[in-house]
Amino acid sequence: MDAILAALYDVISGPAGEKRDWDRMKSLFVLEGRLMPTGKNPQTGEVGYRTWTVQEYIDQAGVSLERDGFFEIEIARKVEQYGTIAHVFSTYESRRNESDEKPFTRGINSIQLLKGKDRWFIVSVFWMGESAAFPLPERYIRNR
Fold it and tell me: Which CATH architecture has domain 2-131?
């Protein structure tokens, strides 16, 4: 499980102008894998979400990751596992440059995984960024 989570953060991270290995990204997920960001609609104030296939994430978010630079690291993790399924609350920090002193955002990735014959696969990543209304609780900042 450590390897698949490290690979997820690694594959989306890199400096501005650097192409990401999107084939590697696709290999981390089950065929029907999904990525789901949450957010508040600026016009209505309602909280909602989007659902992307891995390819839709690459097409929509990948452009800005490669153009602007993006480094995301895991700072804490909580795992619940039963048999071949697992749920991970993975707290993250995001920076534009690896050397940036402070992150521009933090939040939690809620990651569901399935254990295949010889490795874990990501089924979904559902995430929420930290905000003034929802600061990260201490229990999700402390390391494993």
Answer: Roll (3.10)
